[in-house]
């Protein structure tokens, strides 16, 4: 039976997925600085369009000419993110009110509220620090974390407790490792995007016609980059971007091999549906990644690649949720109850 708050959590999950996609669209259209201030746009709640507003923007932000399309891309993302924040606030308030009810999640909604507050700060820093790659990557990960936590909360509130299959610790460990690698690969993807390295290699399976091209890993993964310059378009040279791109490729190979092994183990453990779902999400993501390179990063495919990453992450969360022994506590309670129950047969004897 579904618990109170399920529909709200499901709505928030769908909205979070939309916010993640809008964030990807904003980055890919180079609209991260479409509004040079935060939370408004040139001091307004929308993109300036009247003569007076445009004059105000030119006077106060002479270094950032108004580009209406980019400004609206950024503001639409902010509107939806703001709506998601209010929805999560409402969910946290309701969870606190129902905290005395049995099996009512409380820590998860409060954690979500903390994450979304941090996301707002990262959104501000993304603009004020001019797309500093560390902040951009952190902001992307915060979006995926918000989506993941909302998905887990939706599962918790669905009222359908996952049946624990007779699987061993090795399969659970493999699933947990797969989840960790997917998160790592998403982080690498964020670093690729933040440093504009998606087109550092435009051929497959080689890069610049070489299996191991010139790469500068030291600068490509230099995490203490200088504050101050505008990182729109990136600041790294070709060899550093190539190092980032190739690391993401190698990571994709490692993730694919491990998830294929996980799918095989799931099928062997009579979890064919989970295995098929995993293979579908993995195959889609690999296809989109290859298309990004071969087609030179078309906008629709690039946004879909972000959606594929989110889908693969949610599938891995679902697998780990299903494999985790959720009913262990309930089983212990049942056994204890039976031990304390009156033994009518003995009394009868």
Give a verbal description of the structure:
With 349 residues, the protein is mainly α. The protein has helices at residues 6-28, 51-60, 68-97, 107-128, 133-157, 169-194, 217-220, 238-268, 272-294, 299-323, 328-340, 344-348. The longest helix has 31 residues, at 238-268. The model is unreliable at 327-349 (pLDDT under 50).
**Helix-strand pattern:** HHHHHHHHHHHH
Overall number of strands: 0
Overall pLDDT score: 91
Oligomeric state of this protein: single chain
Cα shape: flat
- What is the CA-based Rg, rounded? 24 Å
Low-confidence stretches: 327-349
Strand content: under 5%
Provide the descriptors you would attach to this structure in a database record.
mainly alpha; disordered C terminus; 0% strand
Explain briefly what this protein structure is.
68% of the residues lie in helices and 0% in strands. It is mainly α and 349 residues long.
Blueprint of the fold:
Elements: H1 6-28, H2 51-60, H3 68-97, H4 107-128, H5 133-157, H6 169-194, H7 217-220, H8 238-268, H9 272-294, H10 299-323, H11 328-340, H12 344-348
